[in-house]
């Protein structure tokens, strides 16, 4: 995204030797064990929003919007238009036509106004409470998505059938205006088992290399480099010694 900054929320024990413009590492205390990683991620998001609330009064009315994303995501188009096109939402989630897990937590957008941050924080706090009370025994990478869906479907007026159509919509959930964006555009994943990256639909703005697809990240970067002019794209590839990905 043009003129955007990257903030890496991480374990204080992590050693990131990054020296890039517009990239900041923000250590956040917490419990980063494998079985509690997704739980800690939500806690880190809440802590970050608390920090932003404190700084907001010092920035003299300057509004900065935020997008929380997984590290295996590549942004290939300007996402600022989300905040311009949909001006009434506080927090945005991505959805797919999946009965049991329609929401993916790899992409969460927050409007940077005081009201937006406060309502997004309250929403995520509810997700955290549901996760802690209902889904601690869920697969370590699914608990947050199940908790997100529980919070959404607990609203009596919410119609889950809306997830069957890849069309954006806004719904008031627990005091927060939630924008639902289709994964097909804002959280697209290459086909399962793809041996190579062969491109994507033209309207895709975010690519999510879930699970074993992480091996395609470098290949995708080379593909974009050779076929398109995406000068503002930042692709952060996290190296791992694993031969199999379990998340």
TrEMBL record:
<dbReference type="InterPro" id="IPR029044">
    <property type="entry name" value="Nucleotide-diphossugar_trans"/>
</dbReference>
<protein>
    <recommendedName>
        <fullName>Nucleotide-diphospho-sugar transferase domain-containing protein</fullName>
    </recommendedName>
</protein>
């Amino acid at each position: 995204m043009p003129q955007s900054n990257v903030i890496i929320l991480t374990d204080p024990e992590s050693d990131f030797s990054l020296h890039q413009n517009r990239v900041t590492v923000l250590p956040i205390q917490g419990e980063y064990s494998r079985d509690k990683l997704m739980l800690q991620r939500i806690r880190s998001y809440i802590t970050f929003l608390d920090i932003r609330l404190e700084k907001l009064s010092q920035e003299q009315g300057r509004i900065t919007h935020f997008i929380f994303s997984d590290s295996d995501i590549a942004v290939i188009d300007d996402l600022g238009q989300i905040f311009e096109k949909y001006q009434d939402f506080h927090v945005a989630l991505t959805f797919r036509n999946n009965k049991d897990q329609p929401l993916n937590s790899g992409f969460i957008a927050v409007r940077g106004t005081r009201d937006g941050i406060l309502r997004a924080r309250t929403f995520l706090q509810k997700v955290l409470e549901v996760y802690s009370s209902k889904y601690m025994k869920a697969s370590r990478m699914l608990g947050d998505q199940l908790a997100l869906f529980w919070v959404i479907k607990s609203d009596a007026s919410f119609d889950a059938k809306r997830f069957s159509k890849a069309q954006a919509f806004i719904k008031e959930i627990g005091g927060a205006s939630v924008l639902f964006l289709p994964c097909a555009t804002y959280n697209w994943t290459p086909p399962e088992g793809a041996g190579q990256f062969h491109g994507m639909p033209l309207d895709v703005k975010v690519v999510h290399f879930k699970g074993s697809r992480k091996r395609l990240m470098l290949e995708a970067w080379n593909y974009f480099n050779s076929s398109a002019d995406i000068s503002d794209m930042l692709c952060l590839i996290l190296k791992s010694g694993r031969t199999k990905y379990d998340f």
